[in-house]
From TrEMBL:
Family classification: Belongs to the GroES chaperonin family.
Gene Ontology CC entries for this record: cytoplasm
Gene3D superfamilies recorded: GroES chaperonin
Keyword line: Chaperone, Cytoplasm
NCBIfam families attached to this UniProt entry: PRK00364.1-2 (NF001527), PRK00364.2-2 (NF001531), PRK00364.2-4 (NF001533), PRK00364.2-5 (NF001534)
Role played: Together with the chaperonin GroEL, plays an essential role in assisting protein folding. The GroEL-GroES system forms a nano-cage that allows encapsulation of the non-native substrate proteins and provides a physical environment optimized to promote and accelerate protein folding. GroES binds to the apical surface of the GroEL ring, thereby capping the opening of the GroEL channel.
The protein, known as: Co-chaperonin GroES
Pfam assignment, any one: Cpn10
Example of a GO MF term: protein-folding chaperone binding
Compartments where found: Cytoplasm
Length: 95
């Protein structure tokens, strides 16, 4: 399925949770914390400005990003989980 976010929305794929601690202890699925990192999958058209133009995004498809954990909506597409959020909820791009 092809998904195109609207306006200033961004579609992300969350990175996988770590399976063990820094000390080497394996974690069960229920104890894993959801990562606040993801990969940009799709972008909308950009925020609509007062002059009628669209603002450019500061991220692009394929970027790895850090995001705010409370500003997104979880969606399932073809059995995979994604996050849909505004660009304002993205905190940084990871190199």
């Amino acid at each position: 399925m092809n998904v195109k976010p609207l306006g200033e929305k961004i579609l992300l794929k969350r990175l996988e949770a770590e399976g063990k601690t820094a000390g080497g202890i394996l974690l069960p699925e229920t104890a894993k914390e959801k990562p606040k990192q993801g990969t940009v999958i799709a972008l909308g058209d950009g925020k609509l400005l007062e002059n009628g133009e669209r603002a450019r995004f500061q991220v692009k498809n394929g970027d790895k990003v850090l995001f705010n954990s409370y500003g997104s909506t979880e969606v399932k597409i073809d059995g995979d989980e994604y996050l849909l959020m505004s660009e304002d909820d993205i905190l940084a791009v990871i190199d």
